Amino acid sequence: MALDDIFLQKFGYIERGPLNAINIDPLQRGGILTDEARRALVQWGDGYSVCDFCSGVLDKIKKPPIHDFVHGALPEFLGTDEVRVTNGARESKFAVMHSMTVEGDFVVLDQIAHYTSYVAAQRARLNIRTVPNSGNPYYKTEPEGYATAIEEVIRESGKPPALALLTYPDGNYGNLADAKKVASTCHEYDVPLLLNGAYSVGRMPINAKELGADFIVGSGHKSMAASGPVGVLGVTEEYADIVFKKSPTHNVKEIELLGCTARGATIMTMIASFPTVVKRTRNWDNEVADARWFSEKLEGMGLIQIGDRPHNHDLMFFEAPVLFEISQRVKKGRYFLYKDLKARNIHGIKAGLTKFFKLSTFGVGRDDLKVVVDAFDEIIRKYE
Amino acid sequence: MALDDIFLQKFGYIERGPLNAINIDPLQRGGILTDEARRALVQWGDGYSVCDFCSGVLDKIKKPPIHDFVHGALPEFLGTDEVRVTNGARESKFAVMHSMTVEGDFVVLDQIAHYTSYVAAQRARLNIRTVPNSGNPYYKTEPEGYATAIEEVIRESGKPPALALLTYPDGNYGNLADAKKVASTCHEYDVPLLLNGAYSVGRMPINAKELGADFIVGSGHKSMAASGPVGVLGVTEEYADIVFKKSPTHNVKEIELLGCTARGATIMTMIASFPTVVKRTRNWDNEVADARWFSEKLEGMGLIQIGDRPHNHDLMFFEAPVLFEISQRVKKGRYFLYKDLKARNIHGIKAGLTKFFKLSTFGVGRDDLKVVVDAFDEIIRKYE
User: ipTM value of the model?
Assistant: First the structure.
């Protein structure tokens, strides 16, 4: 194949189809840029733009105020001692797992942990022990499960796991486990706890110290209205020197961050959105109210909301026998729902799903949520 | 500290001072967005925008044409079998080092390797052996140095190093070593070679197969006119299954990539700029001619260009005794050069440097290069 003009034509500028749709994909809701971030994006989009101001350490840049953001605002926001901006929540998790362990150590994960927690542990060459949940329909993770898993690891390996992780909330059901109890349970065995807040940091109030977590990770593109990939990593003082250990040859560079992370539009959009993000977490009660209202409406049509009930998060998983039944007999088969929603400018339920799917109501607002509710209602009636 | 309105005011949208300056920072030249990328940025800026189109594997997305980009265009462009888009050149290097080794293995680096090569090796917990260069003024790395280093490692550890790395060009002097000979030297000992092309991929023609490299990494934000952080990783078929090994629990997810990498504006700006980037590498002879012309002009004023002579790359390192001498006696001291250049809207030589500094002429063009040359001339005359 030659890289000739005809071949190259397929690249270049490409439009984004669902840009102006009502997007209820949980991945997308918290990452929609604020107006400030959209302006920052244009201003800071070039390559490595932030490096113009750097004398060797990203988080020491005074102007733009990256230092104050990383060492002032974020520790306060996350309730933790030390923070760094990373290339994403998964990269934050790997940095903790890798620095806090040696190959072959055990890590305890909630069974419904995000796949990236499993993959990060595999990359760090750790053994994984999982904490089961209550299964269908609540999928509840109990703090005692952590004690059981830790004791199993001690029995098998002769020592406690190097780390435990709780997904808060998990990315499937939007369940919020009792993080405080999980933390105290882990601490009884001297096991530090990492809280995966990819769906909480930037959406709802969360404070690592109040919950007792030793590490907290968040996602800029998932929940902090930032252009990805970008995340945050909060570490308690006790472990900061381990996780942020510096290079023996390049003594200002932190090894686990490979010396530097977000140094362009990603961090600048995170900073641009930050005031709005802080304020929106204070509106969390209304977000939960919207989620519950929406869930009630869908349940009124025969769908069943799985996971915590009443629900405490915008991310919700539905079982939809009524839609599945339709998919069995209509021409478009299992794609009918995707297509009928698309025709109403609603995006975010994966094409082909009807029996089970997840969605998010975060920041959609009652007006647009009503559009979505009406769409489900119309679609179900249409095929009656 | 409270996250109140007054404190939050310092964040939000922030302007980028040197946005419209002539920027001769080597970090910045190759990362300036094309018009297409600037449009893509706005279109794809939201969080995780690309995920709307994903059914589980980023590089399998057909529309936008990420599959064709990653599996068609990039392998051809890099001259390699398998390619992935990563979060940057350093992340690419770590992925190779980590997957190709076990803790305690040796890696051979050219002594003038970028700091991130050292830090990536340290993160992978490897022993580093360096290949010295000829020192001042040419800093030339000879292929035989790799043989010597490899033999030392064999003597000490009983086996060859797991990997060798060549920085092509290095980021200080812009030297292009004889990569082909380095590759054949390494291969005589069955040592695979990684080429760090952060300053070549996207700037100049480079083909891993022609040079004999087993791995090649490039930087989107440094040299491919993409919004960072984003990079590429090319791997020869022989090692693809090792580097891109999949998770035992989540079988489409590649462990070293933590399952997924650039899934927003970063990859879409890379794709947007790609046609222009391919074409600009075909203009490389003119870029080298511009660099040599510029170097000759500065040498005419008493500066000395260090490194390869004649120079073969836009990245150049200068020793400037004439400027250092001025800094010793003027009021603004060592900041005079930065300030005097800034007054002429020229940015990119670090504030405080006068005796030694590096810069890049890539894509500046003769007209603006002449502005820079005239600026140096005026500044030197001003303080005579």
Answer: 0.97
